[in-house]
Amino acid sequence: MPDIKPIDANLLETLRQIPSCSIANAIETFSVQPRNVGFMGPEIKSIFPNMGHMIGYAVTAKIAADAPPSAHMNVSRTEWVDEIMKVPGPRVLVLEDIDYPNPIGSFWGEVQANLHRALGAVGTVTNGGVRDLDEMQEAGFFAFASCVLVSHAYVHITDVGVPVKIGGLEVSSGDIIQGDQHGVIKVPRDIAAEIPDAVKRVENNEQEMIGYANSPEFTVEGLKEMLAQRY
What we know:
The chain is an alpha/beta fold. It has seven helices and 13 strands. The chain folds into two domains: 9-189, Ribonuclease E inhibitor RraA/RraA-like (Glucose Oxidase, domain 1, 3-Layer(bba) Sandwich), CATH 3.50.30.40; 196-230.
């Protein structure tokens, strides 16, 4: 894995506080990628939507749970810890469940949330399942997943530090991952510093439209003129 450089800590905290939808809007203004990429699809949901905003650097791995691990598809937990520590904090653990779309065992629960939080992780994103919901939330550990699963079955790690694809989004270790009640988005590093100002520009534009919609001067013709200018 190449050396992963963190961005400015104050910038990262600013990005954490911005709603994911506003980040998505801001990214669109730079035309750095098609508008239908860069975020996870609706199958990946916030398990704790009232916890607020998560941000961190991705640490990637692949897991499986449908059958006992084989000799060539079983990464030890100590190797996983070593992989985690290669990435600067705060860390978001991004686990692709290769059993998807039929995940059968949860990697994440009370114990793993607490252990990984001690390693500087703030949360996880997975297309698999999670369990021990009350305990995970009490630990302050964010979870974005496709489902809730009662058992861990034969869950094991099959690979670490490799690109993964979850909810249609490709993620590599070191990517900046942000999430909240609306979903998960990847923040492009090359424009990260420009996103806060772009968010303000977009929101100013939106507030002008909302203000007009609620003003006594509102007319249908005026709305049509505004829409023609902005879309």
